[in-house]
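Q: Here's a chain of 264 amino acids. Please give me its 3D structure as tokens.
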Amino acid sequence: MNQTIFQISKMDCPSEENLIRIKLEGIASIAHLEFDIPNRTLAVFHKGETQEIENAIHDLKLDGKKITTEKATQTHFKEDTNQKKLLWAVLIINFSFFIIEMTTGIISKSMGLVADSLDMLADSFVYGISLIAVGGTIVKKKKVAKIAGYFQLLLACIGFIEVLRRFFGAEKIPDFSTMIIVSFFALIANGLCLYLLQKSKRKEDAHIKASMIFTSNDVIINLGIIIAGVLVHWLHSSTPDLIIGSIVFVLVVQGAIRILKLSS
């Protein structure tokens, strides 16, 4: 049994961890995976060569590279029986905030909130695919991933068109207070998801490390929308909201492409 360490620079949150899990699940030589999100590393316990594993990780475009391969001292691994329950918990949190942010974004005229709702939906898709994959076939998983990826791309394209329409048209200035309040609660929700999933693997960590929180793209997005809300109020302009919305839509497209990579 060998242990190979990968550095994955763009592994910022648990949804990306699950993307990698789904991508690697069909490789028979892998015995166990250990993720360290704060340090953005993955330890793969496997038999034989690493080329198939390296190709799968590279395919997700998360800037993954092999660091070391050595003989593993650990050969027995305890399964996490709570994993399915945790996946359901974070799926419900993310999908709930998709509905909340989409609704409040439309009402308050904020494209930042609408865009972030789609980012929450993308995370929901990843957790949902993970749950479907448990006990399901790889073919079924790939089919669901393809549908979810194209649906996400469609929503992101509609969002970009709406941003352009608002940028060149005379649109009402978004409600800055709604942007700030909803994003603050979304920030808490993302922190809770990180806490639940990391605590399940690191029983010795009673609370979230600062590095664990602030390496997450989701948290950075929430902070960005809060700042955009302040600027909307200060400048009395919808431009900051449209800018942050455009940035998040780009991230949504990247997430959709990674989901589609699962179907290949």
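Q: Can you summarize the key feature?
A: Strands lie at 2-8, 30-36, 41-46, 64-71.
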